[in-house]
Every structure is written in C-alpha cells, then in structure tokens.
C-alpha cells in the first residue's frame, strides 16, 4: 500500500511544477493571454474564498444555529486567503500589459495609477488574510469572532468592490457600472455556498460529521436555490439598465459579450448559473438529496469559473480558449489551491467543538 | 352500552347536548418528534389526523399520506402565469400598441421580464394560497368536532395533537399507548350546519339579485343606473342664466382686479407721463423687441429709419413726424411713451396692440434710431480704421 500513497503524495507537487513551468512559458510567449487566464483563475479563487468567509461571519452576526456543525467547511476554505496574499502580489504583474490606467491628470488618473491600484490590492489581500485568521478554524467560544463579524461585512463589501472595479473594470477604464460590485458579490455568494456544499457532502460521506442530517443539507440547498435567483436578478438588472439606456460608453461592454462566440457563452452562463441549478433545486426533495446537491454545486462552480472568464477575457479582446497556456495556469492555480486545501482540511476538529451552540446546531430540525 | 374507561376524561363545562354521537378521541404530545413517532405507530388504526402550530417535516410520511399535489399545481400555474404575462406584454408592445422608444426593436424580450416575473408570482402565490385553502383543505367548513376540544387551545400555542376516529374508548386507549397525554373523547354535534347548503343559498340569492337588477334596467330604461359623463350641466357661450340676479352666466371680476401682465402705469395725464422713466435696460434683446414693434406698427408711416418718409405717408399726402428733429430728441422718454400709447394728431394710439413693456422697448429703439444720426466719436469702435 506504499506505492499508491507515494504517487498520490507526489501528484500534486508534480502538477504544480508542470503548471508553473507552463505558466512561465506562457508569460514569455503571450503576456495578455497569460494574464487573462491568470486573473480569471485568481478572481475565481478570491471570490470563492470571500463567499466562504461570509458564511461563518453571517452565522456569528445573526446568531444562527443550524450552520454551526458544518461551519468548519467554509472556515477552512476561507483560509485560502493566506496563499492568495502572495498570489495577489504576483497578479500585480498584469498592471503593465492589461491595465492602461487613465490618461492625463486629476483624481481618476491618480486613482487608476499603478501605485494606487497596487496599494488597494495589497490592502484588500491583507484584510482578507486578517479576516481568515480571525474567522478561521479555531476551537473555543466564538465571542471574539462575533464581535468581528460586523466589521467583516464591511470588509467583504470593500474587497469585492475593489476586485470588481480594479481587476474587472480596470481593463476598460472608460466603462463604468454601478452594479458591477454587486454582480461580483452575487457570484461570490453562489461560489461560496456551492463550495461549502461540496465540502460538507465530502466530509459527511467520509463519516466525519456525525449527527449532520438531511435537514442541514436542505438548508444548504435552500441557500444555493435562493442565491441562484439572486444572481439571476442582479445579472438581468445589470443588463436591462444598460440595454435600456443604450449609451455608447455603457452598452459597448455588453456588445463585446453579445457578439461572435461570446453570445453563446453568455447564454450558457445564464443557463449554468441560473436556469439549470434553479430547475434542479426547485423540488423540495432535491434540497436534501446529496447527489442532486452535488450536481447543482458542481454546475454553479463551473458557471462561476466561466463567469470570471466572461468578465475578463472579452474586455482584453481575447476569445474563450483552452490551449496549453490556459491549462498550465489552471493546473498551477488548481494544484496550489488543492494542496492548500489538503492542509486546511486538517485544521481544527471537524465539528467546532467547544462552541456552546454545537448541540443546538446538531439538534436542528426544519 | 359499557362504561367509559377511567382513562377517558370528559370535557368540563356544560353537559354535552343530547344530539351528539361519538366521533373519536384526541391526545396531546410535547414535541414534534413524539408526534411523528406516535403517528407512525397509530398509522392504519383508523382515520388519523395530526395538528401542530407549525409545519412538521416528516409528518406527512408518518401519517402514511402521499404528498399533496400543491407543488404541481403551483408549478403549472406559474408556467401558465409566465406565458400569460409574456403574451400580454409582448402583444401589447409589439402588435397592439407598438411603442418605438430609443430605437429599440419592437417585441424585444428584455424589458418584458419584470412583467413576466410579476404575473408568474401572482399566479403561483394565488394558486398556493387559494388552492391550499379551498381545494386541498376542503374549506369552507363551518364546523369540525375537534374545534370543541380542549386540545384545540393547546395546539394553537405549543402542543401537538393527534386525533383518531372510531370508538372513543378504544381510540383513547390507543392514543395513551402511543404516549399521548390529556386524552379526551370527541363528539360530533348532529346539528352541525351544512356548509354547502348555506353556500348554495347565498349563491342563489346573489344570482337572483343580479337577475332582478338586470331585468329592471332592461324593462325600465329610463331608470338609468349610471349616466357617467353624458349629462354635464353647463351654460353655453352668450347664453343667459336665470341663476344670478343680473342674468349673466359668468361673474364679472371684482372691481379693481388687474390681469397678470397688465399692470396699469399710474399716469392718467400727459403732464404726469413726462416724469415716467424707462424701466427697461437697453439690452440687445430689448432693442430687438423694440425693433420688431417699430417695424410692425410704426415703420409704415414714420419709415424704417424714423425720418417720417414711410410708404403710407407718401401715398396719402400725410406728414408723419420726423423722429430726428431736435424737439423729439430732447423730449423725455415719458413723452414718447404717452404719445405711442395714446396717439397724436392723425396717429392712432397703440395702447391696445403693444402689451406690457413693449412700449418701453419701442422707446429704447426710437432712442437708438435718433442716436444713429447723431453719433459721437466715442460711439465708434476703437482699433478699426
């Protein structure tokens, strides 16, 4: 039994090394294409991490009980903020090739200058890491974390807004949208809940969450179901306003995404992030059925990755491709994230022991 | 008839009316888990019903019931609502009343979704509420034997109850064995009102009243129930009115009323008018207004240049004033104002035709005309040889 475990132990570092080599080659060969793939993967992980941190914070904020037994899953996923701190700094390399800034002088030019943007990115990454430290998988009473929860809500909004307006909006600085931050937040919720659902199902399948019943799963399904509708509403409202206004400096952003191959991708996005999961989770029985929950969560995560590519690539002027460059970046980021998660999976006890609300949470019935 | 078992307590209060017959028994449970467990044990013993202050998951299965078709009803009506909302909005904007706004294509789906959403929710929510109450719950029902039990007051607060139909003694025993407390017998009052008969009577009464009203309106068309806007009492133009003592239909304005924009000057004699000052500042706009008034009313006699050589004067041998004489250049503005309004010699007064401050604008223009023939060196623009 030694060989398989050795292979397994070596698989992730090998993938990471291969991905890093490929990424370096891509960076030398075609910087815009490389950075497009890199920012897509980076934003995917960052929004997922924020969506996960949001859940324990919300639980502490409102004093929720049902989610206490499965809180460790989003807490552990939220520690992705630590490896994302150096990743944020690496991503600053995209400022030269992809982020033109604002010509001339004045407030907007200063705000969009590389220095200011680097400062905001570093500050956001630090705030995320701090939040992951405070809200992370620790035993004991959650009193301190409850006090931090309201502050995290502000951090959540600020970091997502920064990500939306710097990483997404910065590529096309002349374009502007009030709703972009909310759009990214809606996707972030969905990604966070989907990842939490998959993580909970995995731990439950391994028998590491004793006492977690179908009622808890039902609530997870209801969360995902509700937020598919929220995402659909926000995405549609964003589109409707620009469609109605039809202003040249606004509508161009959508025009890029409704022409050529991007039209089908936009339609696929609506189907992946709203249509299919909504229909899948609509019956009551589906919300506590592990298999259907896993399907819905998988669809939502895939949709989120596609959504990030949809936000980034058309603005750069690139089509959606899956060549060796994208595979390399995905391999590198994915194996790094999975490697971190393999470590995070052992942080703290599987059930948050010492939390006075744990018994109440386990006794939760609909 | 055998004695009621000692376990069974009859409800306190006035004795039961004689016209009742045994219906079954009911008992209370402390928590939803005990309720579900007891329902599972008693399933198949007879018609079983559970009562709870909130929805209890798993109760349906424990009672051995199939899921009600409410979800399917709501889904079907939601799809119908979406289709109806879309057809309504699409037909209205694309075919019935095509509205072209901002170059948008007619019948585009994008702006219709809010309507589709609202109608979908309306149909679905209405079906959920009305379908549950009137189709699945069998309402309206004017009475139920459980309403007379003490258990009913408990289950609207924090208790859970099961009722079992059948012989009260046997049912009570079974409930006891399933863990119920506060078991009581339930009787059905034989004089329970018949809801369908009452409803049918109310419906028939409403139909009869409607028919009667319809017949009356048709048989006596002069009894017009609603004349809407056909009759609007009013007095036509120039028509007399018998309502007011003076016979006029319209009231005269109160003495001293001044219409907006027609403020009187205050000057009533020519001597007073000499002291009036021009209230306007000679801006280009004022001079343009004065020029328009001059061209319209003065130029035909005084000439476009104000030299008294207009076309009308020549045609009739009249002698309109030359506005460039020393006398007219030295009179005050108030004099010109008075003469323009009241007229002089053969010249008619223009008071009725030049409203508001137009006369003053005209005075400014006359002054400008006079200045044009007696310009000073300082009037010439500098630096233009």
Could you list some keywords that capture this structure?
heterodimer; A: 366 residues; mainly alpha; 15 helices; globular; B: 385 residues; alpha+beta; four-stranded antiparallel beta sheet; 8% strand; disordered N terminus
Description of the structure:
The complex is a heterodimer of chains A (about 375) and B (about 375). With about 375 residues, chain A is mainly α. Chain A has helices spanning about 1-30, 30-60, 70-80, 80-90, 95-100, 105-110, 115-135, 145-170, 180-205, 215-245, 250-255, 260-280, 290-315, 325-345, 360. The radius of gyration of chain A is 21 Å and the shape is globular. Chain A starts with a helix and ends with a helix. Helices cover about 45% and strands about 10% of the residues of chain B. Chain B is elongated, with a radius of gyration of 48 Å. Residues about 1-10 of chain B have low confidence and may be disordered. Chain B contains 14 helices and four strands. Chain B has a four-stranded antiparallel sheet. In chain B, α3 runs antiparallel to α4, α9 (about 285-295) packs across α14 and α13 (about 335-340) packs across α14 (about 360-375). The longest helix of chain B has 27 residues, at about 70-95.
